Amino acid sequence: MKNSKYNLVPYEVIEKAITGDTAALLALQERHRAYIGRLSGGNTDLKERLNAKLLMAVLKFRLEYQPPGK
Questions:
Q1: Reported pTM
Q2: pLDDT digits (tens, 9 = 90+) for 1-60
Q3: CB atoms inside a 10 Å sphere around CB 24
Q4: What are phi and psi of 9, to 5 degrees?
Q5: What is the C-alpha separation between 61 and 10, in angstroms, rounded?
Q6: Burial (Cβ within 10 Å: 0-12, 13-18, ≥19) of residue 18
Q7: Cα(69)–Cα(52) distance, rounded to whole angstroms?
Q8: 2 vs 7: CA distance, rounded Å
Q9: How many C-beta atoms lie closer than 10 Å to residue 55's C-beta?
């Protein structure tokens, strides 16, 4: 199911990222690349730190929601 109105990351990708799937983590990083670029203001050190924070937050995240059909 595509969330075209808000361009959200699919639930399945989030599930895989939480378990440490490299491809899913890279997809999340790519999805947030422009936002992190704006926040960092061109500072590469800050950009790396924000990317690291994103990955740490994803790996700490716990799912309690069960989507329909699971």
A1: 0.77
A2: 555 678 888 989 999 999 999 999 999 999 999 999 999 999 999 999 999 999 999 999
A3: 20
A4: -75, 130
A5: 15
A6: middle
A7: 33
A8: 8
A9: 16
Token code pair at residue 1: 């199911």
Residue carrying structure tokens 């960092």: 40
State both tokens at 32. 């947030």
Task: Let me know how long the chain is.
Answer: 70
Helices (H), 1-70: 11-18, 22-31, 33-40, 44-60
In the chain, where the domains are located: 11-60
- CA-nearest of 21, 4, 3, 5 to 13 is 21
Q: 């937050």: which residue's tokens?
A: 57
**CA–CA separation, 54 vs 50, rounded Å?**
6
